[in-house]
């Protein structure tokens, strides 16, 4: 897919620091930061609570403040694939939610690995990352960025095995070969260790992105995304099963919105309202999936596999819903989620620098957009 050029970061204007306190006074209190593990029970869709009339003048001033922040450049994590939060960002742009809040957003298709680099270089302001681990490793390398929302409180990766292989649990993989991309991810190492298995007792080989290496018998298991390779295999008539590392204590999450530290510090209201628009778009997309996917298709600069992207959104949006904390709105993230990721990276030897959760994650912006599970949205 062709890529748009990356633009330079715009100069920042002063933020309206005290405004949101007045808005919240009219809208009701916010939930505090939680360090508890996210619930795996299904959550009902986030309700939209309009701000009272008394806050209208505050919203007008807030919108003016957001307009002064200038253009906000956002890079997607996998071009225009139908994954949270990228689908929601496109929907928010198409439906005018950003415009309603005075935010001028420019969306660029890309990859999360390059997005973290552009964030660190101040060339974009906000981006998405497939998992917290990418954010953590970027911060360890000196990037001034933080995760400000995480859509999937349960991981989207798994080990895929053939249904007739007889492999049903990690112990069945001892002495067998696992195919992976580049290196075996830390959560798989953690899964084996949690089950008392020496990771060295499981052979590993770097393979390409064609899942037929599994059906051909070249590997006994393959690291995959739940929303991608299983669909490919099943569309070809193969029956497969998944082994989820999260079921063995190696919990991860996915769909992270990441912000440049300096931009967030200079324009906290703009970052907060960016999340507000994306959260509103999420609920619309759940109810209007076909239209949302069509919006993504129009943005794509190459062939768009609508069937695959429909499957991606179906699988990933269900994970988001099923793992959402019922006490919080979509995007909620916890200290525990991020600490788990830090610990797995350290135990796998990938992370050597000591990092605190506060170095890599910040919930202050997400805290401000909800009254309980109700999204706070201005009156028209």
From TrEMBL:
Keywords on record:
Iron, Metal-binding, Pyridoxal phosphate, Signal, Thiamine biosynthesis, Transferase
Domain SsuA/THI5-like, chain residue ranges per copy: 89-292
Associated pathway: Cofactor biosynthesis; thiamine diphosphate biosynthesis
Provide one Gene Ontology biological process annotation.
thiamine biosynthetic process
GO MF, any single term = metal ion binding
Q: Which reaction does it catalyse?
A: N(6)-(pyridoxal phosphate)-L-lysyl-[4-amino-5-hydroxymethyl-2-methylpyrimidine phosphate synthase] + L-histidyl-[4-amino-5-hydroxymethyl-2-methylpyrimidine phosphate synthase] + 2 Fe(3+) + 4 H2O = L-lysyl-[4-amino-5-hydroxymethyl-2-methylpyrimidine phosphate synthase] + (2S)-2-amino-5-hydroxy-4-oxopentanoyl-[4-amino-5-hydroxymethyl-2-methylpyrimidine phosphate synthase] + 4-amino-2-methyl-5-(phosphooxymethyl)pyrimidine + 3-oxopropanoate + 2 Fe(2+) + 2 H(+)
Q: Which domain of life is it from?
A: Bacteria
Tell me the leader sequence span: 1-25
Q: Which PANTHER family match?
A: 4-AMINO-5-HYDROXYMETHYL-2-METHYLPYRIMIDINE PHOSPHATE SYNTHASE THI11-RELATED (PTHR31528)
Subunit structure of this entry? Homodimer.
**Role summary:** Responsible for the formation of the pyrimidine heterocycle in the thiamine biosynthesis pathway. Catalyzes the formation of hydroxymethylpyrimidine phosphate (HMP-P) from histidine and pyridoxal phosphate (PLP). The protein uses PLP and the active site histidine to form HMP-P, generating an inactive enzyme. The enzyme can only undergo a single turnover, which suggests it is a suicide enzyme.
Can you tell me which family this protein belongs to? Belongs to the NMT1/THI5 family.
Q: Indicate what this protein is called per its UniProt record.
A: Thiamine pyrimidine synthase
């Amino acid at each position: 897919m062709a890529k748009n050029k990356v633009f330079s970061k715009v100069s920042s204007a002063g933020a309206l620091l005290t405004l949101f306190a007045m808005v919240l006074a009219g809208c009701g209190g916010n939930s505090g930061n939680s360090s508890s593990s996210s619930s795996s029970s299904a959550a009902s869709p986030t309700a939209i609570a309009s701000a009272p009339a008394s806050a209208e003048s505050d919203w007008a001033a807030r919108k003016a403040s957001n307009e002064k922040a200038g253009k906000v450049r956002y890079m997607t994590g996998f071009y225009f694939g139908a994954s949270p939060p990228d689908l929601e960002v496109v929907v928010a742009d198409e439906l005018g939610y950003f415009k309603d809040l005075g935010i001028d957003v420019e969306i660029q298709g890309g990859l999360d690995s390059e997005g973290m680099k552009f964030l660190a270089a101040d060339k974009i302001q906000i981006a998405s990352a497939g998992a917290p681990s990418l954010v953590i490793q970027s911060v360890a390398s000196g990037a001034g960025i933080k995760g400000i929302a995480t859509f999937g409180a349960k991981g989207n990766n798994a080990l895929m095995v053939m249904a007739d292989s007889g492999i049903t649990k990690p112990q069945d993989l001892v002495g067998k070969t696992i195919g992976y991309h580049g290196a075996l991810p830390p959560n798989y190492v953690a899964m084996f260790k949690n089950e008392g298995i020496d990771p060295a007792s499981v052979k590993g080989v770097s393979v390409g992105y064609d899942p037929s290496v599994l059906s051909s018998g070249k590997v006994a298991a393959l690291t995959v995304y739940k929303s991608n390779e299983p669909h490919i295999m099943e569309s070809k008539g193969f029956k497969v099963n998944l082994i989820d590392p999260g079921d063995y204590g190696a919990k991860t999450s996915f769909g992270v919105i990441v912000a440049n530290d300096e931009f967030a510090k200079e324009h906290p209201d703009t970052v907060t309202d960016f999340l507000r628009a994306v959260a509103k778009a999420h609920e619309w997309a759940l109810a209007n999936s076909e239209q949302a996917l069509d919006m993504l298709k129009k943005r794509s600069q190459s062939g768009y596999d609508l069937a695959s992207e429909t499957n991606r959104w179906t699988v990933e949006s269900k994970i988001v819903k099923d793992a959402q904390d019922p006490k919080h709105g979509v995007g909620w993230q916890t200290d525990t989620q991020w600490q788990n990721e830090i610990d797995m990276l350290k135990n796998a030897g990938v992370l050597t620098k000591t990092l605190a959760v506060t170095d890599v994650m910040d919930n202050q912006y997400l805290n401000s957009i909800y009254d309980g599970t109700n999204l706070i949205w201005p009156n028209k």
